[in-house]
Amino acid sequence: xxxxxxxxxxxxxxxxxxxxxxxxxxxxxxxxxxxxxxxxxxxxxxxxxxxxxxxxxxxxxxxxxxxxxxxxxxxxxxxxxxxxxxxxxxxxxxxxxxxxxxxxxxxxxxxxxxxxxxxxxxxxxxxxxxxxxxxxxxxxxxxxxxxxxxxxxxxxxxxxxxxxxxxxxxxxxxxxxxxxxxxxxxxxxxxxxxxx
Length: 196
Prior knowledge:
Helix content is 34%, strand content 22%.
């Protein structure tokens, strides 16, 4: 699969709204039979466009705590450790890292001081600075609208267009921008398999 057509995008939008939506309902919306929808979803999963189906839990219904945004500026050599500590915290729901390496986390912190929580969870010695903002409302709406999907060539990283190729290598479907990259990847894979 190289290009996603309008039907694929509509299927993705419907699944983003409700990942448990029956294929018969999706088929009615996109004018396909349920088996045809199933085939398209399978191809989207195999291509890596769909990585899995998940649930959207309203965590405010499950636990107490104060909703906050925590923005941290980690020391450059501590970015990975800070990111991992935030991701591992049960209080944190989402972690975002900017291109500059700053990290923003959303979570519901225990009612004690949020600043104390940051100091205990992350460690201020790992940070150049941080701030905590109280969140008044959260509206998390995952969407595929306005998104263009592009597969990357596993050999060189270029975008795979309709001129690209796909091949099953090592049991996985791989995508390539051109036949040359496909050949190079397969040769390298065979060498690694042989232990050269």
